[in-house]
Automatic annotation (TrEMBL):
Role played: Involved in nonsense-mediated decay (NMD) of mRNAs containing premature stop codons.
Protein family: Belongs to the SMG8 family.
Region feature (Disordered): 227-246, 526-558, 592-675, 747-778
InterPro entries assigned: SMG8-like (IPR019354)
Keyword Nucleus: no
Organism this protein belongs to: Takifugu flavidus
Protein name: Nonsense-mediated mRNA decay factor SMG8
Length: 938
């Protein structure tokens, strides 16, 4: 079939039998455990240990494993990479002992190999941060260094495999790090192997000999050369002494030797070096590019193996003679693409990989050793060819100390070895070192940015702003994996600087101003302030002062910016009350009356929604009987009906006014369903969201009587201090009491027996027929009652004025009082804060706050009900009200209601508005006054 290629390979029976006897590689740990327990026949063999390490690229065939297959003439490792079995990405050493050649191969697989690198990438989580990923990779590199140190301590020959023909300069840094680590852990290794049956030189130097390091490079496909080795630009008939591959090997040898000598990795005395390179032998081998035909490669391998097997079957020899025979056979037949070139003219023959390595192994097996010292007085280095059993004992001890860490008796040494790994940081973590140096230089710049333009004491907000600025400066200069660690250190340093005597008190006053003192403690009851205490004990102070009036408004005094709701709404006014309005009549609001010596504030109470609380009160008021005529500015239809005289037929309702009104008064105070608690008190102020049955320990409101109604003169206004000129006049509110006809009026006049019973001469009676300008016979006239109302505002400097509307100030220039009616202020929501008419020189605007309500109730059959509700913030701010609602003001009285200076709930204070906040969210709801006529029967 086209497109499918079927290859039939014939395998001779002899090869099948040989494959049945193939050996396999095991881990170094398994090898050491097995050899120390079993009694094998090769325990007395003198062995040469060859270590293989390096890097591999992303190719199907494993480079290092295939080399051991070539060197051992056995299929120890698979030619192609097996599927990933999900193993761990840690470094591991695999061992294979070739008993025929007495060579033990150690193969190191690390993160430098493509298979281990893939496993490491799969083990990383998706959301890992950059610093954690860096620590993960550096941990794998440190583990690789320990395995390399182990191999440099137990091997005679080391083979460094590289996937291309370019020397990796990073090996220079790696070998310097391993040499420094070896010098640090050398005393620990000596203590571990001091009881092993090896020579004194081995115990002192902790290795059988200074290992010889060989380099194997794979030639890149772009560097293919012709078989005869002639240059394209030169004469093809002219023979070259060396092939291009050998010339490349010589160039790499010179480069590697020069680099290691410059960095002091190689010195004249080989016994002091981590490894040596031969002076008169080749130590670099370049493997030519393999053929791209995989089927041809397999057939060539099969042919070469069959040929070698036939030769081995005819004559079986061992030892050096077998090595010479193997060299002759490899010259005749190519093996795995590693063929020697034919002799052309005077051109030398390139050796195979096995010949390249065996010339060094032969020096070990013949006990000649390596003489790699150079200089004027070269000193011979020590050398020992151990038996298999001795090598296993030493390798097992070193494995416990450097890698496995499982033996209890060597656990202390293993822990000390792990502590010496810091030596590797300066060599392996160059990027970390650079990052740390860069971040350390950025820290002083960030500290300067944090401390620039700082006051001596500052708040958390300033600290966070300065810290953000410091982090911006730090991020402009800091780089690398240490960025996060030094950023945390910057956080800690700035916080220590702030908390070490620079932290400002975080308490904010009820007017939203910070305390100017540094962090301090409040004095307890009966405790005096102590400035020497750490932290100091003192009261809060924002250095803000204002001028306020007393409850009645007749006396003013300066006050400090309050930090406590009791100091704001109660203590200050109690001090002024002793000097001014202590003897005035007042209506006391109910407060908490404890029945236990240690009452507690209420906690975990179910808070009702403000809308529900206000709605229940409205619904209850709607259920009240309508027998008495109600005059509410919010209900203009009632006043309009009375003024037109449509309520004359309802005079009978006034007769029942007393009884029904008494019933209403019994229902109005019952806004709470149960008696107030005498065990728990309300920690804040009374508002619509408070639980029922709780009262505060003090009242934030005040209602005092200034005198009878006549104590207010409408022509002169309020005679109190600090009012703006012409703004101390109350607004009139005319209320219709009843309407009566002219005849009823005459009858009442005649019954009074006054002087107006008879008309005066030359004077016509009002209402007579034919009179001009008088009322008609059937016309009525109204009996009116005038109530005076005034909403007083006061700013922080004590300037006061009465408002005639939400955005208007009373202004009376002459005698006679104001002409503006009070219906405008009663029918609208009055703002709690308005801009003060007397602004200062600063840019910050001053606000005047609604603090008092003046009400003058005349001596008339009129009942005025007071029900203030204040919303001191935007929704969902609750509605604040006194502890008693629907307060009845008796006739012939002059009352003043003092509003709270500050408003606060259990969750904190309601701060005054800022410059950019709308003032319409801070208001006193309409319906604060309600007038009811209650005329007794005639």
């Amino acid at each position: 079939m086209t497109g499918n290629v079927c290859v039939v390979v014939f395998i001779p029976p002899e090869f099948v039998m040989k494959g049945a006897n193939m050996s396999f590689a095991v881990s170094i740990g398994s090898l050491l455990r097995t050899e120390t327990q079993d009694d094998t026949t090769h325990r007395d063999d003198d062995i040469c240990v060859v270590g293989v390490f390096g890097k591999s690229n992303m190719q199907s065939a494993a480079a290092k494993e295939s080399l051991i297959n070539i060197l051992a003439d056995k299929h120890v490792f698979s030619l192609f990479s097996e599927a990933d079995d999900g193993g761990a990405p840690e470094s591991q050493i695999q061992a294979f002992y070739n008993q025929e050649s007495r060579v033990l191969y150690l193969l190191l697989s690390s993160v430098c190999d493509s298979r281990q690198l893939l496993r490491a990438c799969q083990s990383l989580s998706a959301g890992i941060v950059h610093s954690d990923a860096h620590d993960f990779w550096k941990g794998l590199e440190r583990q690789q260094c320990l395995h390399l140190l182990y191999m440099f301590s137990v091997c005679h020959v080391l083979l460094l495999v590289h996937p291309n023909q370019t020397f990796d300069v990073s090996y220079d840094r790696l070998f310097r790090a391993l040499d420094a680590l070896r010098q640090k852990v050398l005393p620990l290794i000596r203590a571990a192997i001091k009881d092993c049956p090896v020579s004194k030189e081995w115990k002192v130097n902790c290795r059988p000999c200074p290992p010889r390091l060989l380099f194997v490079f794979h030639m890149n496909g772009s560097l293919k050369v012709s078989g005869n080795g002639s240059d394209s630009a030169g004469n093809p008939d002219k023979a070259k002494k060396h092939s291009p591959r050998r010339r490349l090997q010589h160039a790499l040898e010179d480069q590697i030797y020069r680099i290691f000598r410059k960095s002091r990795v190689l010195t004249n005395q080989s016994s002091n070096c981590l490894f040596t390179v031969p002076a008169n032998q080749a130590f670099v081998y370049v493997i030519p590019t393999a053929d791209e035909d995989p089927v041809g490669v397999l057939l060539g391998q099969l042919r070469s193996n069959c040929t070698l097997y036939e030769q081995d079957s005819t004559m079986t020899v061992s030892g050096p003679r077998r090595y010479q025979q193997m060299r002759r056979s490899t010259r005749q037949v190519s093996f795995s693409g590693d063929s020697g070139t034919m002799l052309m003219g005077s051109q030398l023959l390139d050796c195979s990989l096995k010949e390249f390595l065996w010339q060094h192994i032969d020096l070990v097996l013949t006990k000649k050793g390596f003489d790699d010292s150079v200089g004027r007085n070269p000193q011979p280095s020590h050398f020992e060819l151990p038996s298999y059993s001795k090598w296993v004992q030493v390798a097992s001890r070193l494995h416990q100390v450097l890698i496995s860490n499982t033996e209890e008796e060597l656990a202390e040494l293993a822990t000390k070895v792990q502590g010496q790994l810091k030596v590797l940081e300066g060599f392996l973590e160059a990027d970390t070192k650079f990052s740390e140096n860069r971040c350390q230089k950025a820290l002083p710049l960030a500290h300067s940015a944090y401390q620039s333009n700082l006051p001596h004491n500052y708040t958390t907000t300033v600290h966070k702003n300065q810290l953000a600025q410091a982090l911006r400066v730090y991020s402009q200069h800091a780089r690398g994996v240490a960025f996060q660690r030094y950023a945390l250190q910057l956080h800690e340093d700035c916080y220590k600087f702030w908390s070490n005597g620079h932290q400002l008190c975080e308490e904010r006053s009820l007017t939203d101003q910070h305390c100017v003192h540094k962090f301090h403690l409040l004095p307890q009851s009966g405790e005096k302030p102590d400035m020497d205490h750490n932290p100091p004990i003192m009261n809060h102070n924002s250095r803000g002062r204002s001028t306020s009036s007393c409850n009645c408004g007749k006396k003013q005094a300066p006050r400090d910016d309050p930090f406590d709701i009791k100091a704001a709404n109660y203590d200050f006014y109690q001090i002024l009350e002793e000097k001014c309005c202590e003897k005035l009549e007042r209506i006391e609001f109910p407060v908490f009356q404890p029945s236990t010596p240690d009452p507690a504030p209420a906690t975990n109470q179910d808070q009702c929604h403000p809308c529900e609380a206000s709605g229940s009160g409205d619904a209850e008021r709607q259920k009240e009987p309508s027998t008495a005529q109600s005059h509410t500015p919010g209900e203009p239809s009632l006043s309009l009906a009375l003024s037109l005289g449509h309520s004359t037929d309802s005079l009978g309702a006034y007769e029942e006014g007393d009884g029904t009104e008494a019933q209403v008064q019994q229902k109005r105070p019952s806004l709470v369903d149960r008696q107030p608690s005498t065990v728990e008190y309300l920690p804040g102020m009374m508002h619509s969201g408070c639980p029922k049955g709780l009262l505060p320990k003090f009242s934030s409101w005040s209602l005092v009587k200034l005198g009878p109604a006549k104590s207010y003169n409408c022509h002169t206004g309020l005679e109190q201090p600090s009012f703006l000129p012409g703004s101390s006049f109350l607004l009139p509110w005319d209320i219709v009491i009843r309407s009566r006809s002219e005849e009823d009026a005459g009858l009442m006049d005649s019954l009074d027996g006054g002087t107006s019973s008879w008309p005066a001469p030359n004077k016509t009676l009002m209402g007579k027929r034919g009179s001009t300008g008088g009322l008609g016979r059937n016309r009525r006239r109204d009996d009116m009652a005038r109530v005076f109302v005034g909403f007083e505002y006061e700013d922080s400097r004590g300037r006061r004025f009465i408002s005639s509307g939400p955005d208007k100030i009373v202004k009376v220039l002459g005698p006679g009082g104001t002409k503006d009616p009070a219906t405008k202020v009663l029918n609208a929501d009055m703002p709690l804060y308005i801009p003060s008419p007397s602004q200062g020189r600063g840019l910050k605007p001053h606000f005047a706050q609604l603090l008092r309500l003046f009400v003058v109730v005349p001596d008339a059959p009129l009942e005025v009900t007071l029900n203030p509700q204040v919303q001191p913030g935007p929704p969902p701010c609750p509605l604040f009200h006194p502890e008693q609602t629907d307060i009845m003001l008796p006739p012939d009285s002059f009352w003043v209601l003092r509003f709270p200076y500050s408003y606060s709930t259990d969750h904190g204070p309601c701060y005054p508005p800022k410059e950019n906040q709308p003032l319409n969210n801070y208001k006193v709801l309409r319906g604060i006054l309600k007038a009811t006529t209650a005329i007794p029967p005639p």
